[in-house]
Amino acid sequence: MSMPGSPLRIADVRATTVTVPLQAPLRHSNGSHWGRFVRTVVEVETADGIVGLGEMGGGGESAEAAIAGLKPYLVGHDPARLEALRFMIANPTASLYNNRTQLLAAIEFACLDILGRHTGLPVHALLGGAVRDRVEFASYLFFRYPAADGTGEVRTPEQLVAHARALKSEHGFRVHKLKGGVFDPDYELACYRALAEALPGDRLRYDPNGVLSVEGAIRFARAIEDLDNDYIEDPCYGLNGMRRLRENTTIPTATNTVVVNFEQLAANVLQPAVDVVLLDTTFWGGIRPCVKAAGVAETFQLGIAVHSSGELGIQLATMLHLGAVVPNLAFAADAHYHHLLDDVVVGGKLPYAGGSIAVPEAPGLGVELDRDKVAEYAELFRELGPYPYDRDPGRPGWYPLLPNTAYADHEAEGRPAALDQPS
């Protein structure tokens, strides 16, 4: 059946995995980012030579092969027919077997980039138009292992406060998110309260990635109710657990793990467990699903924020365009971005000013690949290989249970040797 659309047709799709260094290894409840991010850059090219950019997390041979496997679906397809693309790549029942949501997201980013370049419009103009020209971000505070030169460790309350103050001074952040679930909750509670004391007038968020028991989450939430909290994010796992927490605290609850599709969003509307839905352009399968979800949230007066899953400049641009067009964005966005030492886009890292980043105005996503940087960091990936996101280099053989009871030792100093050994 012939369908109306744009004159564009997809001719090719390519994927390149890169690894970009971080200031220091970032620790989280399931393991660590081992001093770098591994990301896969996706390029979709049309028959007349327009190249759109996408990005997805993780990578290596498996991600590159998965993107290459989509070529029979994509060649000859009109990049403007994004709804057809959604069902072609990630039909809900087929996705029980192929789990292509993140692949779809990377392709959607690239198709929107193509359409913007073709029309001369920024992506936000294709999504209804910007209601703001800058998007505010929270600092994203992690406990960190030392970098190779011994700097950058964040383990003690004093180090955490110093790090937060430095970020505030450099970038202007007024909201601070602590990624927890690494150390014993009582120790992290002391760290969180130290942040609040050191940054009067700023707002805070706590996110231990769901590793507390419901009872432990209630206990932690009640211990911080007197502070200026935006919300408490995924302190325990599951909608019912979050619902029990919500019934026992005055702090708004938030998630990026248990409301990441429309069925879960509907369940949360019918039986509220989460007050703030954190919209991730990768986890939801693209920018457009996030805009749709924001519309549902607006209808039912749920809060939204823009979530970060460890972006380079391409995905950061998708977050900026999303943040530009949703009117009900009342919270600062998250970003790992300030932990990066470099980027693969022309001009290097997009700058913060006053805790915010300007929404790109150039056609498409508004970023261009720095081919030399892509080549450099693709070679670095071939040299270093991947790393196990869900393992802690300082605790060989450890993995967390849900709820977790085996936490890292906050008195253990130093840099694990595993960080300096290629995979």
Automatic annotation (TrEMBL):
Q: Which reaction does it catalyse?
A: D-glucarate = 5-dehydro-4-deoxy-D-glucarate + H2O
GO terms, molecular function = glucarate dehydratase activity
Q: Specify the domain of life of the species encoding this protein.
A: Bacteria
Entry's PROSITE patterns?
MR_MLE_2
In terms of Pfam families, this protein maps to:
MR_MLE_C (PF13378), MR_MLE_N (PF02746)
Q: What class of enzyme is it?
A: lyase
UniProt-listed GO biological process terms:
amino acid catabolic process
Q: Could you tell me which pathway this protein works in? A: Carbohydrate acid metabolism; D-glucarate degradation; 2,5-dioxopentanoate from D-glucarate: step 1/2
EC code(s) of this entry: 4.2.1.40
Q: Where is the Mandelate racemase/muconate lactonizing enzyme C-terminal domain?
A: 157-252
The portions of this protein that span the membrane are: none
Q: What is this protein called?
A: glucarate dehydratase
What organism is listed for this UniProt entry?
Georgenia yuyongxinii
From which lineage does this chain's organism come?
Answer: Bacteria, Bacillati, Actinomycetota, Actinomycetes, Micrococcales
